[in-house]
Amino acid sequence: MLSMQNVSMVYRTETVETHALRDFSLEVGEGEFVSVTGPSGSGKTTFLNIAGLLEEFSSGTYKLDGKDTSSLGDTERSRLRNEKIGFIFQSFNLIPELDIFDNVDVPLRYRGFNAAERKERIERVIDMVGLGSRMKHLPSQLSGGQQQRVAIARALAGEPRFLLADEPTGNLDSEMAESVMQLLEEINAKGTTIIMVTHEPKLAGRAKRNIFVRDGRLSSVEPQLQVAVGG
Amino acid sequence: MDIGPIWRALLRNKSSFLLIALQIAATMALMVNAIAIIQERSRLMARPSGIDEENIFYIDSSSFDKDLEYQAMVAEDLDLIRAFPGIVNAMLTNSFPLRDGGWSQALQTEPGEGIDGTGTAIYFADEHGIETFGVDLIAGRNFATTEIVWADPEGAPDWPESAIVTRAMAAEMYPDITPEQAVGKVAYIEQDQPVTIIGIVDRMQAPWKSWAGVERSMLVPMKRGQSFARYVIRAKPGYRDEVMPQLERLLAERDTGRIIDSPGTITEARRMAYLEDSAMIKLLVFIVSLLTAITSLGIVGLASFSVAKRTKQIGTRRALGATRPSILRHFQLENFLISSIGVVSGAILAVALNMWMVQTFDLTPIAWYIIPVSMLVLWMVGQLAVYGPARRASLVSPAIATRSV
Question: Which of B185, B204, B222, B365 makes the best surface tag, with the fewest CB within 10 Å?
């Protein structure tokens, strides 16, 4: 489903070349729950950006659902992101001026669904994350955990093939983090593939597979080792 | 279309756009009324005087000779002028349209005191008057040579028995008949002096361009003068500027005991008559352009600030699937909504302001189409102004969404 072969990413300025990813190869199959850990600056976010088609890479091959993404234009990448990938961000990235309903509606509008279908999907996912009674609330009227649940609902509304979560519990206290993790596990149990970047070894350990990134390279794919390194 | 969410988001953050919407409204109100004034002034300026403006000029002669044979001088001057190559005709008169100075009288349809008359400008003319002014005689006849009288230069004139009036004058005096049917009617000047209307000219404005009855004029077969003579001269097309200085020199050399003023053209008289209107139009165009430019800059500023403030939000939208054109459209639509609030409020304000101006300054009400045209212009200005910032927004990378700051 997600296949990276020797992907490299080099940021260049006039004087400096920074290798954010080096010969990075990874296969993620249908229904997996993969956690990505590593020290700060190791290339986790770059990996996530490339996997989520947020950034282009310098060399290598990246196939998403069998489609080679290296030759895609901006519009095609946007469409693919919208249809196949759901994003969950560390700081939720909800739009403060929009209520919960409209926030979840954002990717659906870009998808071009009609109003009735959008409404049905929005209500279903908001109910699923347990916020059915808060649809007209603004993000600022919700707790951090509730905001992240809205972000998860937004990511799920388009029924993507996989979720990319960037430190989804990084801004939450342990109780809320646990509830978000449980929600992610439930979503994964229903068949959605999840790739989660995290600093938390405990959370990483709950994934079915852990990968460890250091200096832009894939260091390990063993969950136990990942936990040991993180701890 | 994303109108719903964008509209709701704007309503939740009114302070961010109300100022610019207010600015657009003020620009709209001022623009509409300025255009109405410009239109009004332009319409006044475009009114034809009825005479052959392009080819007519005038020469004033002031004599200081105590033994001056005035009538002989005028006859000789006019013979000389009419015989000069490139001249169509010439005559002695008291004034001409756009001169901003002349004679006026009231004509009554019935003799007697206490009867309302119709005000009219009076031009002294002879049998050459119609051709010299180049006016169009639409009914009746021209003056005969025998009808021309020399009036007493000292006292009140004995008015001649015939006159030629403009179509507007005839229509005002005799509203129940066609202007052409006024030929042969007897009117009364100075209450009881009968004047027979022998001809109707299509148009010949009074000398005062701001007078409400500016289209009402009357030619009388009369000459009058003592030492000052004003000759109105019509040149053949294309000859005016060439013959004007030649005739000035010729008249001055013919009689050295007088002063010949520099000749003037009707074109220049028109320019001077409408100088204030012309300056007002330029000033209003400048003010409206300046206001529009300031409003555009305001929109650019607001949109730029909005883009800078929402970079992460834009990145998030891109991450969620927005294409670059979607982001461009988002900001253009947002600007359209803000502009719409401005132009709709501005339209209401414009009408209110116009109603007040009509009542206070007796202006003509604005033409209905100025409002939608102005709205369209301001919408377009808004879209052009927001394009730059919106394009910058569309270039925001979706990777911004995952950055922690």
Answer: B365
